[in-house]
Amino acid sequence: MALMCCMQVQPQRGMTVEQFKAWLRRFDADHDGSISHEELKEALQSLRIWFGWWKARQGMKEADSNHNGQIDNPKEIEKLVNYAQQRLHVKIYGE
């Protein structure tokens, strides 16, 4: 999956870490700077990923290291990037 400048997903392309973070921020509905389970679920469903609700739950389990229900610090974002690369097969390139 990929991110284009117009924020449309194109499976045959890749995105940088910064583009991934910018795309993810689009789903921060309450603009608090963190990603909740519901926001992550909406993001994955926008990619038309099968079982997006379940994969969002798994992503939260992997990335939410302080178990506060939010992905809210750079270390957790990096864990989410790794999850997206490994489990969702999103092509994300280094910064």
From TrEMBL:
SUPFAM superfamilies: EF-hand. Transmembrane segments: none annotated. Residues 15-50 form the EF-hand domain. Pfam families: EF-hand_5. The keyword Cell cycle does not apply. InterPro entries: Centrin_CML-like, EF-hand-dom_pair, EF_Hand_1_Ca_BS, EF_hand_dom. Keywords: Calcium, Repeat. Coiled coil: none annotated. Signal peptide: none annotated. One of its GO terms (molecular function) is calcium ion binding. PANTHER family: CALCIUM BINDING PROTEIN. This is EF-hand domain-containing protein. It comes from Carpinus fangiana.
